[in-house]
Write a structure and sequence with these properties.
By secondary structure, this protein is an alpha/beta fold. Helices cover 44% and strands 14% of the residues. The strands form five sheets. It has a seven-stranded parallel sheet. It has a six-stranded parallel sheet with strand order 3-2-6-7-1-8. Helix 23 (454-475) runs antiparallel to helix 24 (479-490).
Length: 761
């Protein structure tokens, strides 16, 4: 029990409460991973069979770290715990139980590119407009349905869904969904969403299978529970139904994946499912200084939907949070790069002590340009993964075809690469025959003498026999030996070796790197099954957080805030704090969307350990046009006592057409952030502003918002910040009516009435 000595009282209590339903609310930097680790170790120390423990995470990286820590605390028994991502754990179950739902145990897992390829083929075959039926839109629609457990049958029979599709001109979506499901089934393939959808289907239709796993998993733990969707919620609830030894860990303030289907209500309403729930709050932040924690608290306190907690830090107060104002996005990049350059030099830091976080990937351009000018090394995260490179996907397609010849997407990818005289017309002909015969394309090819004319069969036969030889090798070899044999005999290595261009050399080296990775996998001592099929499953189940993250490289990290979740850096720059950028313009139509944006800002702030800098620009190029920008409303929500305002930057004469002279800021915005200060003004005076957004307009005495339900075009109104204005247009339906108002002081604005707080003058 030595491991308990390093825990604070709240952490200890959470670890020791092993029985019954438990919810651990873990604030940012509060030692969540340590608590999960020691809680599992404590279960094993108590005599719980490690085979009866299930731990579900959202990244393989998190699962690996936890398993290593548990092994350190509880020994080799940790190897027996069922621990991994939702998708990896339930893929394992589905391979065992596949026959129950009509799938082969060696089913392929399609990635996003595979799914898009299938959908493109279907849309083309149905002679549909590929702009109206955009493949990304269609795939997202199908994904949302699967995560909500809506089958294609339910989809087609739901009058509301049908009406919505027909009104948007996409009346064939239901048929595309049906064709997509059937095409995947015929290929013996599941997409990422199917791994959860089919698990729900398995547990729903086979009570004996559900009962088997309910009794197997006597203790269930779920990390990052705030990120679960409906499908995940239902699986966990079913598995824990008998023993109710369920422990969920998460932070509602860090729920930022609604666009992926995550439902914050799962954690907010957890107590409704388990009335005898015991709740533990981890409120001490071990990561950040007091000032950073205080800023984070002041931000998130503005959300109505939350589980209240009082996060605190016992570290030093630290630097105040610096707010930088730039006059353009390029200047914002320049200021950020210079600040990093100076901090590194003054404090003897490394480049990888710094991170730049932004709301959208497009914002990286100005940052990259500025960093390059100062020769600052950087790396952008969230770019092309190693496993998404063409040459890697080509070789992996051969691996996939070896284990599942019915995999039509893998077949189409490599049947004529390297070139072997099998053209698109031949492939299309084979696929048409397969559809007519109700068989896979591989079945037609493997029995070519029955279905194909002699000329086509003579071209296809060598390819078929090659794949069949790979199957024999793979069955009798470890992952590396099988992979090397396939790479050498399929022709890819030879083709790339003969390409002496720089790109060809890089591609050849990437193949060698893949083989090196498979070699390491084959020599691992912590796994028993070392076949190429097991390696393939690991690759297919990598999450974005597991791919291509070289944390040891001494480079400044650039990434979106979504990509930064779970990471921490000594110094963080959060850039682009402007209205319609952060919060995103797409989030301003509902309170729930706006609150998710605020949680995203909270996540950004809490990545910083010792120093946090926030910046915004007063002009930014958008679609080739220079637009004026307002500071984000989130800046006004931060308690000013924790801030240091750096507004010393001046617009360069002639560089910004919006400025007439130093006394004028935007004609549309005259608050503290946008209005340049005289150069002689001391910094202390800037810090002591009573509000972060000092208002140019002084509201009428006794100002109180009016009931705007009967607001009409032409009415005069008053806004606390923008002053007096006239209503130009009203559009939309209650409660989401938007008003376009011309304000005398700041120009034209579009406001959502339910949030606008207008007084009818």
């Amino acid at each position: 029990m030595d491991y308990l000595k390093g825990l604070n009282p709240s952490q200890q209590a959470a670890v020791l409460q092993t029985e019954g339903p438990v919810m651990i609310i873990a604030g940012a930097g509060s030692g969540k991973t340590r608590v999960i680790t020691y809680r599992v170790a404590h279960l094993i120390q108590k005599g719980v069979d490690s085979f009866n423990i299930l731990v579900l995470t959202f990244t393989n990286k998190a699962a690996r770290e936890m398993r290593e820590r548990i092994m350190h605390a509880a020994g080799a028994e940790a190897k027996n715990i069922w621990m991994g991502t939702f998708h990896s754990v339930f893929a394992k179950i589905l391979r065992v139980e596949a026959d129950k739902i009509g799938y082969p145990s060696n089913f392929t897992i399609y990635d996003t590119d595979d799914s898009k390829s299938v959908l493109r083929a279907i849309i083309k075959e149905m002679s549909l407009d590929d702009k109206l039926y955009n493949v990304n839109f269609v795939l997202n629609r199908i994904s949302a349905c699967k995560n909500s457990l809506i089958s294609w049958q339910k989809y087609q029979n739901d009058p509301a869904i049908s009406a919505d599709d027909f009104s948007s001109g996409r009346g064939k979506l239901g048929e595309i969904y049906q064709a997509y499901v059937n095409r995947c089934f015929r290929a013996g393939a599941m997409d990422f969403d199917d791994l959860l959808y089919k698990t729900n289907e398995l547990f729903r239709d086979h009570a004996d299978v559900l009962y088997k796993y309910q009794n197997k998993f006597k203790y269930v733990m779920v990390d990052e529970y705030q990120d679960t969707n409906f499908s995940q919620y239902l699986i966990v609830k079913k598995l824990a139904a008998i023993n109710e030894n369920i422990c969920v860990v998460g932070d509602d303030a860090q729920s930022i994946y609604a666009f992926r289907g995550a439902n914050i209500q799962n954690i907010l309403n957890f107590e409704k499912d388990y009335p005898d729930l015991k709740v533990f709050k981890l409120e001490q932040n071990y990561r950040s200084t007091q000032n950073i924690v205080n800023v984070a608290n002041s931000i998130i306190s503005n959300n109505k939907e939350q589980l209240k907690k009082n996060v605190f830090s016992e570290k030093e107060h630290g630097d105040k949070i610096k707010i930088l104002r730039a006059f353009s996005d390029n200047e914002e990049g320049k200021m950020t790069a210079e600040a990093i350059f100076q901090e590194r030099g003054n404090k003897g830091l490394k480049w990888n002590d710094f991170a730049i976080l932004y709301r959208t990937n497009a914002q990286s351009r100005s940052m990259e340009e500025a960093l390059r000018k100062l020769n600052i090394p950087y790396k952008i995260y969230g770019g092309l993964s190693f496993y998404q490179r063409k040459e890697i996907k080509d070789l992996i397609a051969y691996f996939r075809l070896t284990f599942n010849p019915a995999d039509e997407e893998a077949l189409k990818r490599v049947i004529n690469y390297p070139k072997r005289g099998i053209g698109d017309t031949t492939v299309d002909r084979i696929i048409v025959i397969a559809g007519e015969q109700g068989k896979s394309a591989w079945d037609i090819m493997a029995n070519g003498q029955m279905y194909l004319d002699g000329r086509i069969n003579s071209v296809i036969y060598p390819f078929v026999t090659m794949i069949q030889s790979f199957q024999v090798i793979a069955q009798n070899s470890n992952a590396y030996d099988a992979a090397l044999h396939i790479a050498q005999h399929c022709g890819i290595l030879k083709d790339l070796y003969e390409d002496k261009s720089v790109e060809g050399l890089n591609r050849y080296e990437n193949i060698q790197e893949l083989l090196n990775g498979i070699k390491e996998f084959s020599e691992r001592e912590d796994i028993e099954e070392k076949g190429l099929d097991v390696f393939m499953q690991d690759v297919a189940l990598l999450t974005n957080d597991d791919k291509d993250k070289d944390k040891d490289a001494d480079t400044v990290s650039l990434m979106t805030i979504h990509s930064s979740k779970g990471l921490e850096f000594p110094q963080v720059h959060v850039v682009g704090l402007e209205e319609n950028l952060f919060p995103s313009q797409m989030s301003l139509n509902s309170r729930s969307d706006l609150e998710e944006e605020r949680r995203l800002f909270y996540v950004a702030v809490t990545r910083a350990e010792s120093k946090l800098t926030i910046s915004y620009a007063t002009s930014r190029f958008k679609f080739g046009t220079l637009i004026n920008c307002e500071p984000s409303r989130f800046l006004d929500e931060i308690d000013p006592q924790y801030l240091e305002l750096d507004f010393t930057a001046k617009p360069q004469p002639g560089n910004n057409p919006f400025f007439d002279d130093e006394r004028t800021a935007w004609s549309s915005n005259r608050d503290t952030f946008s209005k340049p200060k005289p150069a002689s003004q001391p910094m202390a005076a800037k810090v002591k502003t009573t509000s972060i957004l000092a208002k140019a307009h002084v509201p009428t005495a006794g100002f109180a918002p009016s009931d705007t339900s009967n607001l009409q075009v032409g009415m005069e109104v008053e806004h606390e910040r923008f002053g007096f204005g006239k209503v130009l247009t009203l559009e939309g339906n209650k409660p989401d009516i938007k008003a376009t108002i011309f304000f005398k002081e700041v120009g034209q604005k579009q406001l959502l009435l339910k949030f606008a707080k207008l007084r009818i003058a």
